[in-house]
Amino acid sequence: MDAKKIRYFYLLNSFLILLFMGTSFAWSIFATSLESYFGWTRANTSLAFTLNTVFFTVGNICGGMLSNKLSYKNIVRVAACLIAGGFLLTTRINSLWQLYFTYSMLCGGGVGIGYNAIVSALPLWFPEKSGFTTGILLTGYAFSTSILGPFSQWIINGYGWKTAFSVLALIVFVVMLAGSLNLRTPSSEEALQFPVMKRTINQAEKDYTTDEMLKTSAFWLYFFARIVSTGIGLTIFNHLVPAIREFFPSEKVLAIAALSLVSLCNGLGRLIWGFFYDRFGVSWTVRLIAFVYLFGMAILVLAMNVKMPLLFVLAGCILVFCFGGNAGTLPAVSRGLFGSKHFSMNYSLINSSALISSFIPTIIGTLQTQNGTYRQAIYVLLIMAVGGCFVSAAVKDGAKQKAASTL
């Protein structure tokens, strides 16, 4: 069989798995129904989503550990059972702690495990364009809420939230189970059929073990850069609309439109930055994302001070565009810095930076509450973006690490 042709089928297969896995992040669709049914507050339901994000990162690490014992297809099957089981058990909950266990822990952890397996296996079929391929995969993940969210809302409106969770459990389980049958890495014979890479800027100097990776300055520099960039992006997702309503109270329509615009930019960022990575490598990608982040924050500050709502939304779109690129290129950059042999575990540790980043929107929200405005919080984000630029500038291409990055 022609490996150069069949790999596109595997790409579509993995795209669909991630598309349906991302359904668990359509939390805002379910939150209102649960609040009305149980009498819970928005703080209660918001914590469920925060914990889901935390357990996603934990699941990512577990996925890396499982890769030493199970095949990627079996790891996806484990993830399918956890996600579907979490959805089904959510229909039986009576208290908050049960919600945090079923939706946050089981679904979030399951998605993290499956996510690690997909981004570990599929890019090996496209060594000459791993960045763009990963971007395509994660675009499906990013657009999951936009595509499947309306379907979930239709079920809730017609049949209730319990039925919606049950239907999603069945669909996600079937799609992931079927998709797992076609998830594998290329054989050595198939790998010989792929185009030879003409550039070396995306190739690590060697395959670093996890212990070796943790001893490089490149890991810690990129880890910190990820904290900053992911934290800013998550903050924009959480606070852009409230900030528009504060600074431009008459722009109600614009505030609503901003949600759709940033979602679109998130998906486009994963594609475009992946394309950029394949051509310019690790260093330029990491540095340029950080620079554009700073540029976007500067525009946000300017728009806030000169009171230009459209410019404010444009800045938010730029920042989320970078957030998408940051997420989309993470697997490719991890390979470019530290190699493919120990990728699953190395990638999961780099991605654990999200555990810290997830608290930044909360800190920004606390600053807004204390000061009664987002003004000071936005300046804090600007300072973070400056720091991110300096750190990102020190990240070296994989081929240069042995000479420049070992502690």
Describe the secondary-structure layout:
Elements: H1 3-21, H2 27-38, H3 42-66, H4 72-90, H5 96-121, H6 130-142, H7 144-159, H8 161-180, H9 188-191, H10 210-214, H11 217-247, H12 252-306, H13 309-338, H14 343-351, H15 353-357, H16 360-371, H17 375-392, H18 401-404
Helix pairs in contact: 1-5, 1-6, 1-8, 2-3, 3-5, 3-14, 4-5, 4-8, 5-14, 6-12, 6-13, 7-8, 11-12, 11-13, 11-16, 11-17, 12-13, 12-17, 13-14, 16-17
What this model shows, in words?
By secondary structure, the protein is mostly helical. It is 79% helix and 0% strand. The protein contains 18 helices and no strands. It has helices at residues 3-21, 27-38, 42-66, 72-90, 96-121, 130-142, 144-159, 161-180, 188-191, 210-214, 217-247, 252-306, 309-338, 343-351, 353-357, 360-371, 375-392, 401-404. Helix 2 packs across helix 3 (42-66) and helix 3 runs parallel beside helix 5 (96-121). The longest helix has 55 residues, at 252-306. The protein is globular and about 60 Å long. Residues 402-407 have low confidence and may be disordered.
